[in-house]
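Why this split exists: single-chain examples teach little about how molecules sit against one another. For that reason, every record in the complexes split bundles all components of an assembly together and asks for one structure covering all of them. Below is a record exactly as it appears in the raw files.
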Amino acid sequence: MKKIINDPSTVVADALSGLAAAHPELLRVQQDPAVVVRADAPVSGKVAVISGGGSGHEPLHGGLVGHGMLDAACPGAVFTSPTPDQVQAAVAQTNGGAGALLLVKNYTGDVLNFETAAELAAADDVDVRSVVIDDDVAVADSTFTAGRRGVGGTLLLEKLVGAAAQRGANLDECERLAKTVVDGVRSMGMALTAPTVPHVGEPSFELADNEMEIGIGIHGEPGRERAPLEPADALVPRLLDAVVSDLPFERGDRVILFTNSMGGTPLLELYLAHGIAERLLADRGIVVERRLVGPYVTSLEMQGMSLTLLRVDDQMLELWDEPVCTPALRWGM
Amino acid sequence: MKKIINDPSTVVADALSGLAAAHPELLRVQQDPAVVVRADAPVSGKVAVISGGGSGHEPLHGGLVGHGMLDAACPGAVFTSPTPDQVQAAVAQTNGGAGALLLVKNYTGDVLNFETAAELAAADDVDVRSVVIDDDVAVADSTFTAGRRGVGGTLLLEKLVGAAAQRGANLDECERLAKTVVDGVRSMGMALTAPTVPHVGEPSFELADNEMEIGIGIHGEPGRERAPLEPADALVPRLLDAVVSDLPFERGDRVILFTNSMGGTPLLELYLAHGIAERLLADRGIVVERRLVGPYVTSLEMQGMSLTLLRVDDQMLELWDEPVCTPALRWGM
């Protein structure tokens, strides 16, 4: 295993120390239980928007804490759900009196632990709601999931709900928006190589030199099929067709297109793939209103990519354009 | 070779198409000769700040084109210098009547081709100056270089000079600032794995499973030594000591610290390394005023990192904080 780490058992805590040192003006880190909290939290009268999940998907979620996005993130061990006490601490530290909305990726452990935390917070008289995101069209159930997995769409969900909460939307409105986003977002990914989890020390799976995994999960879980390598001009339509036909997205739909690197794929390849996706969507009469290209929902050093489409209206575009100031996503301020 | 591409011979052109599609509000792309140009260029009365170099280091340079940073970038083939006609086209498209400053990484081909372009532009009566950056402390001469290589410091140079030009500094002032930055910036990098150039199809070098290359260049050129893998707590001081002792940076110095991923190293590891660097600098009494952490000056999918330190004063910090709006670096607007 080749990694820039010390002890695999402290890798998340060590990385969180670095995150705190790098962005003192945006966030603070509490180590035990581990929570990344917006620097100015709690914001009085504002709905707290909280997410979390296993580490190894950075910048998701800790790198998305800040003005206009997440109030707190709960980082579990690598590829492991955060514990209820982490989520409970996040609620306690960000509760500004307007309740909290938990944005939860659909993995069995995550759903269970966020649910337990919501119950604990309710006992503390905080109004806590959860919305589960399951945007991955690749498989119906999977290694860690009953139902579909939550993947790239999570970032779009966090941005839009974070912006609404920042503008003063109440908990009902934030919850309703989150459900609308979940209803209108779909993703699919693929991998060329496997990630290596530090405390495991071996690649998560084996792929032959001429193989790729189509529909991969962000923990290296199997997708739809292993297929021979193919050119980007065949691969990108394959991913996009699966996404478009699922909702389905139709001629005249307005969308945000998110072309995501799984971590190890360089921008040179990612922009190349993005250009193909833009052309295919134009051919279908689907209108790309905004785009995001980069490594945002990753799987450690795994090479691969995913495409996410979110159907939007004017209100959602306004929320997308609202100022945001986090380590990984920053504009308008 | 596992890559999301079509034909290796069109990979740069294909990626530039995607870049243009992704950021129509920030930049435009001309394909032959290849130039990435700020959307609102030429800006009348403003010094044009232009850089470029081989592709494969994204987001450097095309992802740094926009308000407050580069007016144009000239992307060569992967790891290959841009041609003089690319640079000449960049000058022609961005010349707002106040001259142009070329920021050139110190590689033999780059220096030669930018020089030729400057002569061509001078013949067109445009006042063109060049500043060469050679911030890599690892080796005195190298595979592609007489003298030191230009690496991570290039990004800091582009940000500060870009901000000065945006604020209305004239060509003399921009040139003087660029030289000050070059005088005060030092970097060193390392690699755990090799990149694969698309038109070569094989990794650029071989490293054993227990080896790393210390002082690597951003094209995979050899550095100071191959060493056995070591923990981050040994590796980071090794890089930082080389950087600090070179200038040297001294107790009381104020700096920008740039912790850069070579591409394939995940943020989890990069933030971990950044945290160590912050602690070491605090121990030495060197004051980190600003920081940047991420994959900005990369070598395709190479795993590894570099550390860059720039000595700053109040004026340089002001320039760092000035608004910037590019695909990869964006704040204040």
